[in-house]
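We modelled the chain as a single entity of 238 amino acids. Its sequence is:
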Amino acid sequence: MLMTIELFRQDAYARRCDAQIIAVGEVGLRLDRTVFFPTGGGQPGDRGRLLLSDGSSLDVVDTIKSPDGFDVLHRVSERAPRPNVGTRLIAEVYWPRRHRLMRMHSALHLLCAAVDQPVSGGQVGEHKSRLDFDVKSIKLDKTEIGERIEDWIAEDRSIREEWVPADEIRRRPELVRTMNVKPPVVDGKIRLVEIEGIDLQVCGGTHVRSTGEIGGVTVGKIESKGRHNRRIHLTLVD
């Protein structure tokens, strides 16, 4: 079976692409190529639509990875008619939501740098996101964290990506910031996301091109979720 070409890994700003249906299942449609990001790494799957040549369209309500992990499944309404295998179409992401998720994901990397402790969990949201930190005896100051993030956003630092051999994380385990999470491997490589002079870590999500593009964020209260676990929320301010 053909594997989906994941265009979002090459260009997070690609909003649409020509594609062909390669499989139709109860869970969703598989395309030969897609700009839709599937749920993973705490980031929700994209929504959007599939535009057919007859002028009709199918709403994509969620995007997930196939059980075998090789393909992307575009989930449509159960009541929607299923096109045939081989149907050509245009896959179009709902961009305002995707861009907010990109901004939030990049903001969470800044939060990682501001706290600089192991991450035990997290969730990227369209309006509000969170990270959980294993802080042990470290005391966190909400105001200080917020000011550091605001300064980095104002400095408009560049955000770039680089693909390196997967065995790089064996030599540099500090590149994996989230505990007990296996980084996605593509063709024997993993992707590093670097915020200029601030942060470098393995990540398979979508990001903006610079910290200035994140815009305003607010650091919420710091919650205790266990003896060593502290949860910090971030909210986008538009």
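As a brief sanity check on the tokenised model: Residues 98-237 form a domain with the Threonyl-tRNA Synthetase; Chain A, domain 2 fold (CATH 3.30.980.10). The chain has two domains: 5-93, 98-237.
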